[in-house]
Recover the amino acids of this structure.
């Protein structure tokens, strides 16, 4: 008993009859998603569509993200671009969008394939790269940098958070190939900069032999490099982050950080909107647009 | 005051016997080997100075406090009272000295708290509850709607709810710890009638009060405690007031109301046409330096409201207030204190004291500013002032840093008094200043009032004890329904005239 | 309830209700999407989980306590139910296990508070951390997903065209209101919160009832967990973070005093609806998410200001 | 303070102190890295930020209130200071601006609570959301990073070999203890928290002091923000999330009653140290992240259980 699929032209609330595309990311207080927003806005201008960008206050709040998408469905947006906070938890709401005929573009984090099939959900396309691959890149870099030998430390994100888990798995797998590399300590710093500082400061106390650190995001890595500086070990520890935030890039230039994994959020954003527009125009699009993943060193 | 005939042939049967009860708190031995025997159908009066241990002894019976040593026998059988619920179950009921009502529940809900009538298992029969509660309240002769929320009742009404609650227990032993301290004549009479009915039913009653005249009206036997020890038990008929006082305080008291007139000076406080809509109507009166003015009236007549309005605690809707001859706007208690007013509130627990703070911190609270230099409190001044109050008022406390919550009721009242004596006030409003204070200490407080007057202070003394009003005032105002319904000089006032005015029957209007 | 009593109660809720209606009116004026049947049902569904948790918190808060562990209990009971479902345990059994988990954790809170004499804040803060860790350990940090239609009916089904979560919410509120106003347990919660010592001296088994109320709160958290799991078709060990704040906010907006002794579940429902409507409206309007936070904070303040203005005593 | 009075006070802290020492003893036995000068200085530095915020909360809680906005105020004052520093405003001026921001926000809390008659929970919950949104809007969601050595001295400098943050913390505690015990303002906080009406009738300007105490709490949050910004060489609009929970936990572990009217900053310092030592120890031991949460929760509960056991009054 839901309404008929809305055609792009009849979207209400759109200024000057332009169709509205919604981009729902995990959170907007992370520069990664801000970059994605920038890219999307640029594309929206280019293609002449309205863009609504919404997100929960917290990256891990899957239920809130579901609410936001439900509300956007009520608002009858023409297309949805989503970065799922949880790859399986996103499935029910994709199904809801399907029911009213709103096309769904998934960006950056995959929606779980099996769950999607089981629920009979359908997405138009996936645009992005893989956190797991990024973790592997980081692991390979550390191995190369240390010559396959050394003690490693890891700063984890919020325990149980998918994004962090994937990066971590990739990293572990990559370093496992080198018998000389040993992860001696792995602790959570909840994605946060101040905790990155504190936790790594404490790690250095008990593991003075650590020669490389992999932090599951740049914020923790940036906190950790301050801890390294305050311990007088600047330059002696290889620090690899994730996300390639401007600050991390600057730190790499300065030499306090060694590398970070870039996922090109802005490109993801613009490609997502571009694909959505094509969908609305009835054009065919590929069901997977890979976005390069790259190690910045 | 209706005299109640003694339970003629004293039933020899002891319902409850206490032997060698001991209870120590850090710094004080509250009870030191006390014996007590209660018989069916008697009113057993418990007497003692503030802090003598009366309430503690009763709390042991009611299961609120566990004793350190001693034994309790119920019908001759030793029993260990495990807690309030157990005490109630075996028929021991109590009205506590400090109110124990739930503020946001109604009177009826409070009365049956813990014993609600049920419709089915687990469903309250609210209708039956209200009906039963209303019945008890009506029997007590008080005009309280069982549906009214307790926090909106006056102190006296709350006290009557406490009484009703105790009655609803149908206890075999009923303890009343100062039930009349907040009541006026009218309610006291009703209460005594109720006590007589209970006696006739064979209930053993323990009655604690500092109003000596009551004891002779209703008591059968009296036990006196001093410093946590049992100093004697007498048949009321075989003792005298002075003997009891001697047992209590260990010395003779010459005069119960040692009134000394002080020279009356200039106008200290004048109130003209004061109005607070629905509560106070056209109030006019004057207080002069050196004068003690009594303010009498029934419960709910608006005496407390008048005091609060003058003190800036409640806003007024009209009228003028002059302090020392100058018209003043008193917008807050702070402003009032700044103008040299002091206000001893009737409800010490909720308005008078910060129970969690120490004697010293409470005593100095209104004077903290005065005791500070450059924003730093002068501890020496504070300690000195507190030590002076403890000595002057004979506050029974292990020390100035004792938290007031642990003091006996009467001693808490003394701390409230001490608080205002510490300020440099020249006009005092005392709302029930001797509530819960023992005879010896009352005399001390009266003497203090004399001293204050002699120093040139003006005092407005609100009291529900007519003897006190009559004994201590130079002039007496009587309120009825928010108006000053009569004004008398000390010489012309009698109990009957005051009562008539309080009931709104006498003519003499205030000048 | 007699009309008079009812009026007195609703009088106390009046300000909040006005706040809710004002909010709805504003949204109705601003967007055509707000006042549609489907959107209102949508809001009701979105509110239901917070509303159910908030009932438990209302009980606890009326009794003078607080429970910070509800969010973690949602996670813990959720993963317990979910993992049993995945092991093909029959749905009713799995539900029962989840509910019992919540109840048991709640009772632990209660026992720590009563027999352990811990301040409720500390006991439940501790359990919040322990239960979260427990949920992570239990699942090894991974979500547990994918359930039968039978279970998912709890989120997707309808009874007389009303979505099941909304039905659950209504049933919970009706029962809770009855318990609070008509049973000794409810009465004692008010008494304990109003004056614990007086309640004790009146023979109320304070420890028992305090222990039970945390149990009830845990149980309701577990119910919310089941609803959430069915809704997301997944249970996460990191679910429910900060749910306690939302539930406390709903309770307090609804006029329940954090000091205890006063409050009503009707108010709490209004409070939860205010929060749900607000978030829905801001999404419908497409307000930027930074501005959303400002607006949400401001509206919470305004709603309660309005309420206090209505209640303000003369003096 | 006279010896007797001091003993009475420290008696109240005794249990918590035992808890702290027990924790230290366990860690000392388990890892050689714990009891080293450099590690203890680390712990002190790591504790300093929470400890400074907790002082403000202790004041507020003693006065019978609560402040949930501290974390957001840390973020907001932090980005204000940081953005001024980046515009090459002289350090003292930028610091002043940050502190004034915190103070002003705190006073807004206070005014909402006193003149607006809002429950402190609601007012500060509202401001928590508004200030967070404000910080995000102000910075467009991005961190503001990279400062002069002059400013960073606040984190990296040493005075007599003691790190500056630790010095700041000590100074704050000494002043706070003095204010609480020796000034009318401190006394009034206890009186207001203990019995607001009695305080009012004793001539205490309740509204004034209540407003001021939230101002002080905001100011101390801003001070913590400056320390945090210097420490991380960056200010973030999402800094300080959940800081209120840590600070309240430190306060309550330290024996301050959430009901108001009781408490001490000495206890709060011990409480903050317990939390700091615990986190440090778990990192040193390399405890798995899931188990960490369980342990943290359990230790908080145990520490306070120990404390209550020492204080347990006889019936
Ligand atoms: N909880 C407590 N902690 C410490 N001391 C206490 C406590 N309760 C009572 N006391 C002390 O025990 C003594 C006896 O107190 P109690 O209340 O029994 O006196 P009382 O005879 O009822 O006096 P009053 O006539 O003033 O009511 C007092 O010195 C009091 O300070
Ligand atoms: N907070 C309140 N809410 C509603 N009614 C109140 C409140 N406080 C007092 N009253 C009512 O106002 C009237 C005046 O009470 P007040 O206490 O001033 O009288 P009083 O003459 O001092 O009597 P009392 O002997 O009880 O002290 C009473 O009927 C009382 O029930
Ligand atoms: Mg007594
Ligand atoms: Mg009165």
């Amino acid at each position: 008993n839901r309404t008929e699929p809305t055609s792009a032209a009849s979207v209400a609330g759109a200024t000057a009859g332009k169709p509205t595309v919604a981009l729902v990311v995990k959170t907007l207080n992370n520069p990664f998603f801000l970059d994605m927003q920038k890219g999307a806005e640029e594309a929206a201008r280019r293609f002449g569509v309205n863009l609504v960008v919404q997100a929960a206050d917290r990256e891990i709040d899957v239920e809130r993200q579901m609410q936001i998408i439900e509300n956007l469905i009520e608002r009858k947006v023409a297309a949805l671009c989503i970065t799922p906070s949880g790859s399986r938890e996103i499935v029910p709401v994709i199904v809801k969008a399907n029911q009213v005929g709103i096309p769904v573009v998934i960006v950056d984090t995959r929606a779980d394939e099996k769950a999607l099939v089981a629920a009979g959900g359908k997405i138009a396309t996936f645009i992005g790269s893989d956190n797991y691959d990024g973790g592997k890149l980081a692991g390979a870099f550390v191995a190369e940098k240390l010559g396959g030998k050394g003690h490693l430390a890891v700063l984890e994100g919020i325990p149980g958070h998918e994004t962090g888990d994937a990066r971590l798995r990739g990293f572990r797998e990559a370093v496992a190939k080198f018998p000389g590399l040993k992860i001696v300590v792995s602790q959570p710093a909840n994605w946060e900069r101040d905790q990155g500082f504190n936790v790594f400061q404490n790690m250095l106390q008990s593991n003075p032999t650590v020669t490389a650190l992999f932090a599951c995001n740049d914020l923790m890595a940036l906190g950790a490099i301050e801890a390294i500086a305050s311990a007088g070990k600047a330059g002696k520890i290889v620090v690899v982050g994730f996300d390639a935030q401007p600050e991390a890039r600057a730190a790499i230039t300065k030499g306090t950080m060694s590398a970070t994994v870039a996922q090109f959020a802005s490109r993801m954003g613009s490609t997502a909107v571009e694909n959505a527009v094509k969908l609305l125009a009835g054009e065919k699009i590929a069901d997977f647009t890979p976005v390069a993943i790259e190690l910045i060193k | 005051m209706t005299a109640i005939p003694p339970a003629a042939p004293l039933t020899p049967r002891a319902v409850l016997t206490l032997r060698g009860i001991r209870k120590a708190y850090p710094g004080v031995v509250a009870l030191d080997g006390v014996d007590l025997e209660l018989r069916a159908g008697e009113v057993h009066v418990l007497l003692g100075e503030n802090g003598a241990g009366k309430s503690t002894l009763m709390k042991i019976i009611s299961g609120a406090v566990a004793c350190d040593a001693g034994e309790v026998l119920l019908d001759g059988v030793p029993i260990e009272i495990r807690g309030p619920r157990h005490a109630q179950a075996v028929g021991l009921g109590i009205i506590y000295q400090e109110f124990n009502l739930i503020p946001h529940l109604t009177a009826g809900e409070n009365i049956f708290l813990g014993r609600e009538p049920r419709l089915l298992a687990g469903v309250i029969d609210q209708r039956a509850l209200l009906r039963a509660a209303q019945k008890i309240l009506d029997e007590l002769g008080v005009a309280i709607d069982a549906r009214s929320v307790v926090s909106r009742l006056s102190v006296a009404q709350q006290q009557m709810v406490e009484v009703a609650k105790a009655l609803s227990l149908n206890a075999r032993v009923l303890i009343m710890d100062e039930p009349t301290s907040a009541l006026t004549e009218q309610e006291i009479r009703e209460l005594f009638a109720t006590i007589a009915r209970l006696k006739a039913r064979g209930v053993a009653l323990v009655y604690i009060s500092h109003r000596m005249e009551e004891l002779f009206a209703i008591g059968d036997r009296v036990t006196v405690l001093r410093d946590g020890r049992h100093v004697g038990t007498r048949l009321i008929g075989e003792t005298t007031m002075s003997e009891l006082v001697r047992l209590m305080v260990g010395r003779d008291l010459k005069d119960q109301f040692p009134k000394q007139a002080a020279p009356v000076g200039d106008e200290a406080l004048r109130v003209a046409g004061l109005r607070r809509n629905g509560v106070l109507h056209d109030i006019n009166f004057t207080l002069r330096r050196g004068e003690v003015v009594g303010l009498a009236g029934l419960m709910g007549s608006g005496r407390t409201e008048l005091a609060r309005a003058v003190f800036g605690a409640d806003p007024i809707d009209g009228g003028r207030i002059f302090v020392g001859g100058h018209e003043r706007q008193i917008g807050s208690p702070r402003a009032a204190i700044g103008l040299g007013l002091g206000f001893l509130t009737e409800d010490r627990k909720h308005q008078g004291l910060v129970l969690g703070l120490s004697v010293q911190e409470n005593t100095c609270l209104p004077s903290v500013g005065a005791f500070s230099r450059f924003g730093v409190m002068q501890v020496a001044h504070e300690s000195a002032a507190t030590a002076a109050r403890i000595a002057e008022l004979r506050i029974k406390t292990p020390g100035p840093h004792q938290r007031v919550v642990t003091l006996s009721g009467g001693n808490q009242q003394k701390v409230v008094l001490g608080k205002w004596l510490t300020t440099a006030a020249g006009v005092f409003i005392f709302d029930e200043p001797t509530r819960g204070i023992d005879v010896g200490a009352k005399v001390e407080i009266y003497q203090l009032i004399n001293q204050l007057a002699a120093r040139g202070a003006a005092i407005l003394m609100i009291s529900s004890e007519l003897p006190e009003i009559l004994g201590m005032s130079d002039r007496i105002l009587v309120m009825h329904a928010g108006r000053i319904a009569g004004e008398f000089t000390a010489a012309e006032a009698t109990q009957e005239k005051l009562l008539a005015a309080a009931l709104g029957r006498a003519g003499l209007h205030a000048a | 309830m007699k009309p008079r009593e009812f009026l007195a109660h609703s009088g106390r809720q009046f300000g909040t209700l006005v706040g809710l209606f004002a909010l709805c009116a504003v949204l109705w004026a601003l967007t055509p999407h707000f006042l549609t049947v489907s959107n209102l049902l949508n809001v009701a569904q979105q509110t239901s989980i917070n509303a159910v948790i908030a009932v438990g918190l209302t009980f606890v808060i009326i009794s003078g306590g607080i429970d910070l562990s509800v969010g973690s209990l949602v996670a813990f009971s959720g993963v317990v139910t979910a993992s049993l479902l995945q092991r093909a345990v029959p749905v009713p059994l799995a539900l029962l296990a989840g509910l019992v988990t919540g109840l048991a954790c709640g009772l632990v809170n209660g026992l720590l508070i009563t027999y352990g004499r811990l301040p409720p804040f500390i006991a439940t803060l501790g359990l919040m951390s322990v239960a979260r860790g427990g949920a992570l350990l239990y699942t090894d940090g991974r979500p547990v997903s994918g359930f039968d239609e039978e279970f998912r009916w709890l989120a997707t089904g309808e009874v007389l065209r009303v979505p099941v979560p909304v039905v659950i919410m209504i049933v919970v509120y009706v029962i809770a209101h009855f318990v609070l106003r008509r049973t000794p347990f409810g009465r004692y919660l008010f008494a304990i919160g109003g004056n614990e010592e007086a309640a004790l001296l009146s023979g109320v088994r304070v420890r028992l009832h305090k222990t039970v109320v945390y149990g009830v709160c845990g149980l309701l958290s577990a119910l919310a967990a089941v609803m959430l799991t069915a809704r997301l078709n997944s249970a996460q060990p990191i679910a429910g973070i900060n749910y306690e704040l939302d539930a406390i906010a709903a309770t307090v907006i609804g006029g329940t005093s954090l000091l205890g002794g006063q409050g009503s579940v009707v108010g709490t429902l209004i409070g939860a609806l205010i929060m749900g409507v607000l978030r829905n409206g801001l999404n419908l309007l497409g307000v930027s998410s930074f501005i959303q936070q400002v607006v949400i904070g401001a509206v919470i303040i305004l709603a309660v200001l309005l309420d206090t203005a209505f209640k303000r005593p003369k003096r």
Summary: The two ends of chain B are 32 Å apart (CA to CA). The mean pLDDT of chain B is 90. Chain B touches chain D at residues 65-66, 311, 313, 332-334, 336-338, 343, 345, 350-357, 361, 365-366, 368-369, 372, 375-377, 379, 401, 419 (CB under 8 Å).
